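Backbone geometry tokens:
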Amino acid sequence: TAFVGERFSIRAVDVATGAVSTLAGVSTAGHSDGSGAVALFTNVTWHAVHPSGFYLLAADKFRVRRVDLCPIKCNAGCNGSYYQTTVSCNPDSYPACAPWTDDNSLLSRVRKSATGAVVQLQESLLTGNRSCGLDVFLPGHSLTIMGKPWGGTVVDCTGTGMRFLNVRGGATVKLVDLTIVGGDSGAGDGGLVSVGNASTLEAVNVFFERGSANLGAGGCLFVSEEASALLSRCSFHQCTAMEGDSVTVQGGSLTMMGGTVEKSSTLGSSVVLRSGANSVDQGTAALHGTRFTGDMGAPGAAGIFIANLNAGEGQSVVLNGSDPVWGDVVFEMAGSHDNYAYATHQQAAAIAGRVRLFNLGATTGGVWNTTGMMVPEGSVVELHGCRGGADGVLVFPGNLSVMGSLSFVGCTPESAQGVMVAKGIVDVRGLLSFGGGGSPGSGSALAVKSGSAVRVLPGGTLALHDNQASEGGGVFLQGSVHVFEGGALDAVNNTASIRGGGLFVCTTGTLSFQKPAGDPEGGPGGGNVTIAGNSAPDGSEVFLAGDAVLLVGPKGMALDNRLSNQLGAEAPCQDFPPPFTLLTEYNSSGCKWECLPDFTLDRTTPATCLNSGGSVPSTLRNVSEAQSAGPYCSPGCRSMHVADGVCNAECLTAGCAWDWRDCWTLDLAAMDQVRPQVHGLKMQRTAASRFALSVTTLGDANGDLVIDAFESLAAFGLSPPQFAMLSEAHGMFATAGRVSEFLVSLLAAVDGASEYAGDVDMAGEVLVRLGDTRHARDLAL
């Protein structure tokens, strides 16, 4: 059939026979809606048939008119005593109708509602079959069901054996201020609500409770077949299902703004995303300020947050906590059994905005276990106090891209090799940080598996501080770590109980301060690497096992190797660097190094680096004498460095006036490196008291809590007359009793004066630095 617009009418032409008939309109102008000759047109100028063939659109002067082409049976509707139960456009069948009872029940009110209607509920409680089993399915049909404010209307479907609501056929339903309880999907999906066939559910201030799909998916909510659910300030409580205790999204989309998802079942994950029947239909979720809470209950559940279970293409989740209205996405769980994010496919989970996870735990598979994850620029993801089982806290069989900030604070791997276990490629363009984590008997902060790589790219920082492990307090490296030009690696104050306080490099591992050969990213230079303050019995900073590779970097790059224990190796190169060197190249067959500044090379066997400059003076110099003593006031300390405002550990000698007061306010780990054996008082050395305590206890060589004349001469370079003056002829200093008088006198000697001329406040500072909080002018043990 062809259609022709003839000014005041629409004509139909049978192409096979040539017969012409008037479909709508008459031979005169007018305007009215209706069928056949009842319809009037003013001036039809053009028309077009919709691709479905069900209707055409006609331009009628200033209006666009719709003309239905579907046969009359398709357009037929149920009369006032019946409601429609099917929708179709089959020219050979009328729609199915069923009688309804006008009993003012919720079911009746929904069935007779016109599109766009609002069903306002005044009741506080609705129960039974006439309040459940709602079915909204007509294309384009919209309906709002509104309860009393803030969930004040409870709809209880317990015992009915049916769900509360089914939305399909492209319809839209909005639920407001409801508490929906006790629905059961039987063997199907969606215990309380099911949304499918490109339909839409909007819910505001709705509490979903005790929905059940124990043989299906979506204990409270099931979203499928390109449908969507938009939830604002909604909560899920005590929902149960085989998959997705609270929500399952199968080829649809979920958006949550605010609200709470409570884990209360051991059957399945709280939220499950999976592909629909069409492999291109992916289950997706965007969460804004949503809080996940609850107790896992028992081991063996599939996961607390996202579990991608379909073998099709990967699903995605976007956690967005950056919205100023909805706040952070927070996971705060009481159990320790499940994966909180679990994905098995290639699509990366994008974690956007600010997301915080607290005290999570997993027995296997990791708190996060995904094929890939991306932290976009500007996003902040924090994991606090999380516990990993056999696989660590964060497990990546695939790739991780950190362009924002991903931080682990106080997390422990328990039996795994690392808090984060990398099994693919990790690209760091933002901040990847591990702090205060690990445990002495388990894995490192970061474990890089064999064949995997961490690339610290330009602008990126890998920070590891205050972590602990048995081997590799910061990093346990079986794969490779490359620090590109413009990238930074900071491994500070980590501890290993056996080997490799900062980093442990296995026989298959590579630690490189430069990019891999042929990598198109970054420049040819090296990254900024700081490895300091770490500790371990063997290799306090770095330990190299077997044939491990250390690529120190291009020209100008070096590894500061001050003490004999800082760099450890199972099979060291023939010319292994001694203490006080800068290591510039290392492999199992050869090393290149040079002595630190102020140290000279002694080529005897084995080669060593010795302090440069002068002999040790026999008596204490004051600050003026030390500054004018020549190039060096004692070995390793240049005279120009005395009293220069910077604490120099090598200047903490009598010949250099104990560096005057430059070291008073610092926590001097360097001093222990110069003099590791300190006897006498065993006290906690805080930043305020460290220098003063060290000065007084350093002289007590035999540990008898007093300093005699011989110890004074050896430790402080005090001549017998100086010692007699300072000890006031007592013959000794009691390190616990008269230390304040000794300190004041020693300060006078350093100042080059016969007596201390400082003010009372300065003397008070000295006492505070000694920990004398009672101001009793002594130092209690």
User: Anything to note?
Assistant: The mean pLDDT is 75. The radius of gyration is 39 Å.
